[in-house]
Amino acid sequence: FITTGEENLLAILKRRWWKYMILGIIDIEANYLVVKAYQYTTLTSVQLLDCFVIPVVILLSWFFLLVRYKAVHFIGIVVCILGMGCMAGADVLVGRQQGAGENKLIGDLLVLGGATLYGISNVCEEYIVRNLSRVEFLGMIGLFGSFFSGIQLAIMEHKELLKVPWDWQIG
């Protein structure tokens, strides 16, 4: 914080604050969507569909980081997507009941959305760590992630927060 030069916290915030703000929001929303999906679908579906992050990362890495993969990687992507499609179809058609909520399709879509956001976050992380600094990434994602998580908590869970008997032990 006190150091001078380009590694100074204030200099980093001045130049790239908006990028870390967007990345922090993407990261916390990915977590939120996947956790929210547990209310609607089965644990197995969430675990399997969360693997959708792999094709997302590979495709985004191909286009934005210029990483090149072999044919076997793309065969793996196809197998992954086919498995996820079968799992989602089985949830909707068979209607398995492993303690899940009513609408499994909504849960499956929430997981796919969260996995897509995880993929975006992972590729951005890779870019930052390659080109800037892993210390900078960890510090900024922690700063902005905490800030926006607190805001989302206050907005969405304010009634539950008021029910907590706050005292020094809980604090």
Automatic annotation (TrEMBL):
Keywords: Membrane, Transmembrane, Transmembrane helix, Transport. GO terms for molecular function: transmembrane transporter activity. GO terms for cellular component: membrane. Its main location: membrane. The keyword Transport applies. It is found in: Membrane. The keyword Membrane applies. The chain crosses the membrane at residues 47-65, 71-93, 105-123, 135-155. It is a multi-pass membrane protein. Putative solute transporter. Belongs to the SLC35F solute transporter family. This is Solute carrier family 35 member F1.
